[in-house]
């Protein structure tokens, strides 16, 4: 039976002085905080050099899986912080004016609204009724040099097969509709072209040697495609911070849990109104609406 040597709460197998000294002076810690091991197995490293992990700059990862997990987490952080946003020299408003879709006056109104709200120009123009979805996608396609694709016309769609992390699919609302491992190429439809720069960097890391082609699609149709392959995710939602501490959250979760078990429930949506939360879905041929409001406090 091998003896164990305890050193600062770390247990190592005492085989010989070489492995022990290697452990003392060359110990590394996996940069992935979710890693359960965190520390390298000295015996395996000595016997199998290929298990020495991956070094990326000043960071070390015990396995490729840990590196990908860390990269996914960092990419999502950058996306939420709106870092690495792709910009174009061509302005969306001017493209739409050149096409005769909107007038200079309409653009000025939309730009003033953008200054007040901080919303995307395309979103404002859509809600104002100045343009339709097809007008916006066509202009964005030209603005960012990315081909537009009608998701409804896709005849053969390859399942992700674990090649693309689910977290990235849902965070960016994208879908790899064609995957060919033999010829090493992947076609991905995205819904926001400003994500291109960040996505190119990410996929070049996790799929080295693959040719990655991006296409632009309508947000709602891409989301619908995603839910066809991940139906269990259709009830996933995140409450805004102002509702986090309310008792209503538990009630909503109970209803969501109940609905998720019903096969006839479709077209699920969750919207935030000024003073209430609106849960909307179709149950068979019946449209259902639930409104959640906080009880008004009685005056003493």
How would you describe this structure to a colleague?
Strands 5-6-7 form a 3-stranded mixed beta sheet. Strands 8-9-10 form a 3-stranded antiparallel beta sheet, with helices on one face. Strands 1-2 form a two-stranded antiparallel sheet. It is globular and about 60 Å long. α3 runs parallel beside α8, α3 packs antiparallel against α9 (196-206) and α5 packs across α6. β1 and β2 (10-13) form a beta hairpin. The chain has 11 helices and 10 strands. It has 3 domains: 4-62, no CATH class; 84-231, 2-Layer Sandwich (GMP Synthetase, Chain A, domain 3), CATH 3.30.300; 234-293, no CATH class. Helix content is 38%, strand content 19%. The protein starts with a strand and ends in a 7-residue tail after the last strand. Residues 1-24 have low confidence and may be disordered. With 300 residues, it is α+β, with helices and mostly antiparallel strands.
The beta-strand count equals 10
Query: Which structural class best describes the helix and strand composition?
Result: alpha+beta
Q: What share of residues is helical? A: 25-40%
The global form is globular
Described by strand count, sense and barrel closure, the largest sheet is: 3 strands, mixed
Q: Give the C-alpha Rg.
A: 25 Å
Distance between the termini: 74 Å
Estimate the strand proportion: 15-25%
